[in-house]
Amino acid sequence: MSAIGAAGATATNRRWTLARIPAGAPRDDDFALDEAPAAPPGDGEVALATVYVSVDPYQRNWMAGGGNYGAAAVPGATVIGRAIGVVVASRAPGYAPGDCVVANTGWQTAPVAAATSVERIDRALGPLPAWLSVLGSTGLTAWVGMTDIGRPQTGETVVVSAAAGAVGSVAGQLARMAGARVVGVAGAPDKCARVVSELGFDACVSHRDPDLGAALARACPEGVDVYFDNTGGRVSDAVMRLIVRDARIALCGLVAEYGAGAHGHDFRPLLANQALVRGFSVRRNLHRMAEYRALAADRIRSGDLRHHEDIVDGFERVPEHFRALLDGRTIGKALVRIAAEPAPR
Fold first, then answer.
1. Hey, which residues does 250 pair with through a beta bridge?
2. In the prediction, which pLDDT does 7 show?
3. pLDDT at 260
4. In this predicted structure, what is the pLDDT of residue 71?
């Protein structure tokens, strides 16, 4: 892991590109590591040295042809994603070398970005990794889906899939704060145990249970009022069979179905119970970040909102950590550290 020098000079930009569009689960040879001289910033731009790169389920959806992500997923394209970087050179008013920012620069080590597209980090609100997790778009996603669509009430039962993940872990805690009974769905038994003991969920069911439907029914004896769906697939099938009248389903992600072909669902329970199903995108809610971040920072300081970042070191490991995320082998927000954090100024 490299350190960012005082002058911040980075001679080479390394980036992970798509060698081809993955068919099914991504493999090593779906990605290619490209190196080129780092570009200088133009007018209104900043040159960055990346500190953390984020790996996320939506990147698999992008690779599968999902829209609303800007650049198309074609061979040779830099893999999209958010990152934390340090300004090493600036030709934009208001930014100076040493400033820490969040930017959608993808999987690369020395990108150049328009100053209008980056966000300055206030390290007083939380540590750098949290700005890609609970204080960033991940946390905002959970808040928008749970407060706008789920609207949990005291005494209701809320189910959250991918409960040990970055979004699910926050969504479940927000439902708990609203007074709901919260049931998570996660993978291995040890992850389920951590969802309960560390995040305060009332119960957690393993999606590996051969009789998932029965396990969920035992955990939700009065049915499901709210479902925060991060996965789709067989988990959603099992939950939909348990929904009650006027249930709300926040459709956040379908990671079990990205690149896996069509998955047919039985929507009869939705019709019979007059359920609300609404998909949403955090990109349409970025203007609400300050409101959410103020709430989240207070909750983090009080200990009510916990977060975990699953961090590995080394740019070469970005695709590996991405696959670990998709395989359910990470907990919380999955990040790759590219360089040592600069000291706070």
1. 228, 278
2. 40
3. 60
4. 83
Average pLDDT, the chain: 93
> What distance in Å separates the CA atoms of residue 76 and residue 266, rounded to the nearest whole number?
39
Flag residues of the chain having pLDDT under 70: 1-10, 259-263
Residue 300 counted as domain residue: no
Number of domains composing the chain: 2
pTM above 0.70, yes or no: yes
Predicted confidence at residue 1, as pLDDT, reads 61
Give the pLDDT of residue 4. Answer: 57
- Is position 5 within any domain? no
CB atoms within 10 A of CB 295: 15
Is the domain of 144 the same as that of 85? no
What is the domain-level CATH number for residue 145? Answer: 3.40.50.720
Q: Within this chain, do residues 259 and 159 fall inside the same structural domain, yes or no?
A: yes
**DSSP-based three-state secondary structure for 246:** strand
Identify the pLDDT of residue 345: 78
| Closest to 181 (Cα-Cα) out of 165, 196, 164, 193 | 196
* Domain membership flag for residue 255: yes
Enumerate long-range contacts of 297-301, CB under 8 Å, 24 or more apart: 297/125, 297/126, 297/135, 299/177, 300/126, 300/130, 300/134, 300/135
Q: Label residues 72-82 b or e (16+ Cβ within 10 Å = b).
A: ebeeebbbbbb
Domain extent at residue 214 = 137-283
Distance of CA 159 to the CA centre of its chain: 18
Other Cβ atoms less than 10 A from the Cβ of 219: the count is 20
Nearest Cα neighbor of 158 from 231, 224, 218, 100 is: 224
Q: Are residues 80 and 145 in the same domain?
A: no
CA–CA gap between residue 196 and residue 211 (Å, rounded): 21
Rounded CA separation 230/225 (Å): 16
Cα separation, 151 vs 298, in Å, equals 21
Task: Look at residues 4, 5, 13, 1 and name the one whose alpha carbon lies nearest to residue 110.
Answer: 13
Query: Residue 93 to residues 98, 115, 237: CA-CA distances in angstroms?
Result: 14, 9, 52
